[in-house]
Amino acid sequence: MTAEGGLIGFTAAAALAHTGLASTRAPWPFQTAARLFALGALLGLAVLDAAPAALIAGLSASAAAEAAKAREWRWRAPAILGAILLANLAYAWLFGRYGAGRAALEAEPWRAPGVFGAPALAAMLLTGLWPAVRRWAPACVSITAAGAVSASAAFTLPLAFWTAMPGALLAAMASIGACALALSERRRPGLEAAAWTAGFAGQALIAYAILH
């Protein structure tokens, strides 16, 4: 089985498992297990395919964030936010390393909406969620900035990596939503499932771009 085929198979299985568990209101540990399985599948494929360290770091940090959500504990919020920030920084470094930066924008102006639109969209989302995240403003602003840089840089990648462009945008927006959910006083299963699905889909597209 090729890495691409394995990625598609594991992703489909994980998405189906997670959707089924969320729709049946399965106990939280089972949903967490499904999410960790999905991220672990991507991580395993990345390791086996000798993917760049930044991709492995990003997936590992995302898995750590999910593990931190599994139970209520004193350091739950900072652990989740720290892991999300590390994931965004890893992806920002990855796309900055392989993207062409300003040269790509000058050569292909069609990239401009993605390059400049991603930070604007991230700022709008953070503004909308500000009442929920202002208690941890420095961390959430840092996560938003890192996600915006990551998504913007993804639009300077060679076209062979095109799936990383929407993937990075999805992952960045999901990470901002995850900040608000992590700081919420009560759990919101529906919103958490939606945010996780968007974030996982984004990272699957990123992984596919790199492994492909």
List keywords for this structure.
globular; 212 residues; mainly alpha; 9 helices
Write up what this structure looks like.
With 212 residues, the chain is an all-alpha fold. It has one domain. Helices cover 81% and strands 0% of the residues. The protein contains 9 helices and no strands. Helix 4 runs antiparallel to helix 8. It is globular, with a radius of gyration of 16 Å. The two termini are 13 Å apart.
Question: What is the element layout, followed by pairings?
Answer:
Elements: H1 3-23, H2 28-48, H3 53-69, H4 76-98, H5 102-107, H6 112-133, H7 137-154, H8 164-183, H9 189-211
List the secondary-structure elements in sequence, H or E: HHHHHHHHH
Overall outline? globular
Helix content: over 70%
Could you tell me the strand content as a percent range? under 5%
**Distinct helical segment count:** 9
Query: What is the terminal-to-terminal distance?
Result: 13 Å
Summarize the structure.
By secondary structure, this protein is an all-alpha fold. It is 81% helix and 0% strand.
